[in-house]
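Sample entry (221 residues):
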Amino acid sequence: MANSNEMTINLVVLGRTQTGKSAAGNSLLGSSDFESHRSPSSVTTCCSLGRSCRISGIIRRNGCELALSIRVLDTPSYPHSALSKEQVRDTVSSALAHHFGEEGLHLALLVLRADLPLCPDESDHAIQFLQELLGPTWKDFTAVLLTHADKAEEAGFSEEAYLHSASSTLLSLLSSVQHKYIFLDNQKSIIKEERVIVLRKLLNFIRQNKYRVLLLKHSKE
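Predicted structure, serialized as tokens:
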């Protein structure tokens, strides 16, 4: 927190290539800080930090309204088309420590596509990656962001129907992170009102975690 009238939340987006990870980061920031487009190879090759403008009217603490600022760290995907797992892990770990080492990380957002099934191998790899990055308390500091929710809706799935039909792999993952998940409509996420809804859900997750942060340090080889 910069002062008593402002709160900054620190987020990192993680996920596979073409899940809409960078686009999700842009939606959270209300900007186009991160490069995002369809490509036959992984687009993001290094970590990049984006900052939002101050946002009012979203959060109150102790009866006072606070100005909210969002910081999002965009990361290379894992698996990556050009980088090894170790290269991605070390790059992300170093960037987390550099940008959030003093203030701490509020939430890691694991980005998955709502319009594609989550397979056991993919889930296992994602969980292992999160454990290596965040340590044993990763579940407390991880939420799932389900992008392309508009495509699932076009296929006739409401959120409730989607979860009822979801694979046991996805349901197990959501359970492990205490059901911290958000559906992100890629068509509506640029609308201010939709962005506010998503940010309020993220703030609720952070509140449920008692505003704790995960302190990250540079690993010593």
